[in-house]
Amino acid sequence: MTTHRLGVIMNGVTGRMGLNQHLIRSIVAIRDSGGVLLANGDRMMPDPILVGRDAEKIEGLAKRFDVARWTTDLDGALKDESDTIFFDAATTQARPSLLTKAIHAGKHVYCEKPIATNLDEAVAVLKLAATKGVKHGTVQDKLFLPGLKKLAFLRDSGFFGRITAVRGEFGYWVFEGDWQEAQRPSWNYRSEDGGGIILDMVCHWRYVLDNLFGEVESVSCVGTTDIPDRWDERGGKYKATADDSAYATFRLKGGVIAHINMSWVTRVYRDDLVTFQVDGVNGSAVAGLSDCVIQARQATPRPVWNPDEKRTHDFYADWQTLPENTSYENGFREQWEMFIRHVCEDAPYKYTLLEGAKGVQLAECALQSWRERRWIDVAPIKV
Question: Do 3-138+331-352 and 142-328 share a fold?
């Protein structure tokens, strides 16, 4: 067995997602466990270089996690031929230009989503990657949640029978930033900076629906901006110009109807920050981030509508918790390992920039539906 060095340029790791999921729980965790195991028994050891605009922050992270290399000079980092992968988790608006620059430098690219704020830019990057012959991928993290993996298991086992509907509830209260610090960056609430819950979250729903329940064929969506004023990271008041809540219905190939509510202006009264209920003729399931409960056809109660009597039946007690028959890795780390194997040994890989472009496309369709107040069909992407 031989261990090989793999140079990885990591841009945007000072943000919450880039730091926690990609640096700490993925690259550092992979490094500390001995690298990624390849099919031939060799290992690929990631050697990251952290890139950012704030030298003090970047240097601090490098020291904290024993990363030998950091820089504020992205162009200089891209010139180093010994670093073969470029990763980006910075702002959505900047992503197409950063990916373009990295692809021109001959780097394989992996990035957070959305991969762009509009479909034209997303397709342009996808075409460039194909022309230059570099490998590419985009994060599809919700598919790797234990709760959604359990839904996939139930689907594959035939538990649902014919699936009729999917209902998703996502969101929580994001503080405005005046009397309590906001949990999300201020740019998320400015459309001119690439913000908005439709652009951010509908990209997720595209790959979740496509991979678990059927390809999205059309969408009807309405958004709102419920909190008009927020306060930024420096305590300055600003106008919130982006949508912070949205309500979407999707028609899927095969006849399934999916409805998903999403909001940063809601208080949680459910089992998790996101839940999906899947109804089928033979059974139903409700999954959150980790857990999943099921109710088979044979165990379904027979409710009778009677508003004149107080309901005493405990409907929650009619559901069975799906047992933990397997263990689950951190989903972000699992995706990193898949992409590294794809780069280093050409292992099969489906979560390419095309999948990222599909997410941007559906967000565009949802925004168009909101503007025009009608259903929008989702056409195949031509590359």
Answer: no
E strand or H helix at 57:
helix 55-64
Compute mean pLDDT per 10 residues along the chain, 383 residues long, and list them: 96 93 98 97 98 96 97 97 97 95 98 96 98 98 97 98 98 97 95 95 98 98 98 97 98 97 98 98 98 97 92 94 93 98 97 98 98 98 87
Domain positions in the chain are 3-138+331-352, 142-328
DSSP 242: S
Beta strands of the chain (E only): which ranges? 3-11, 36-37, 43-51, 69-71, 83-88, 108-111, 136-138, 163-171, 216-224, 229-231, 237-239, 245-252, 257-263, 274-280, 283-287, 292-296, 320-321, 376-377
* Beta carbons of 136 and 87 less than 8 angstroms apart: no
Q: What is the pLDDT of residue 1?
A: 80
Which positions ≥6 away from 238 have C-beta within 8 Å? 186, 189, 190, 229, 230, 231, 232
| Rounded Cα distance, 50 and 68, in Å | 9
pLDDT for res 383:
80
The answer to whether domain 142-328 has CATH 3.40.50.150 is: no
- Mention the CATH class of domain 3-138+331-352: alpha beta
Q: What share of the chain is helix, strand, coil (3-state, %, to 5)?
A: 35, 25, 40
Residue 304, token pair as written in the block:
């009778």
Contact between 349 and 138 (Cβ < 8 Å) = no
Q: How many H-runs (helices) and E-runs (strands) does the chain carry? A: 10, 18
